[in-house]
Amino acid sequence: MSETTEQQGGSANCDVHLHAEIEVLKQALVDKQSQLIAMETACLRESDRQVELEDSIIAWQDKYDRLYESHKRVQKVNQTLEDKLLKLVDRNSGERAQLTSDVATLSVRLAQANYNIAKLQHEIVST
């Protein structure tokens, strides 16, 4: 019987050891499951964040596109206005040159007319 008692004692010791190992493995499994759940939760949060960022990128891209189109339109309008302004400056410069020439011509005629008037007045007084 001593052999049987020894076997039972060894078997009981082995069962305790196996139960302890099973408990350790169960705890490790629970820990890993908790880590997995935490990782899945973080992944879902990051996925939601990615969707938000993608939506934000689309909104900012749309704003950029609209601003860029507006900028191109304003540039075109500015170029048109600049061209019109330059034409006006050229035309006014030509008109100014013509008016300056006309003023000079009329000043000469006025001086001649004044000279003739003075000459005629002198003749009238002399006679």
UniProtKB/TrEMBL annotation:
A single Gene Ontology CC term: membrane
Superkingdom of the organism of origin: Eukaryota
Compartments (UniProt record): Membrane
Keywords: Membrane, Phosphoprotein
Topological category with respect to the lipid bilayer: Peripheral membrane protein
InterPro entries: Tjap1/BEGAIN
Name of protein: Uncharacterized protein
Organism listed in the record: Hermetia illucens (Black soldier fly)
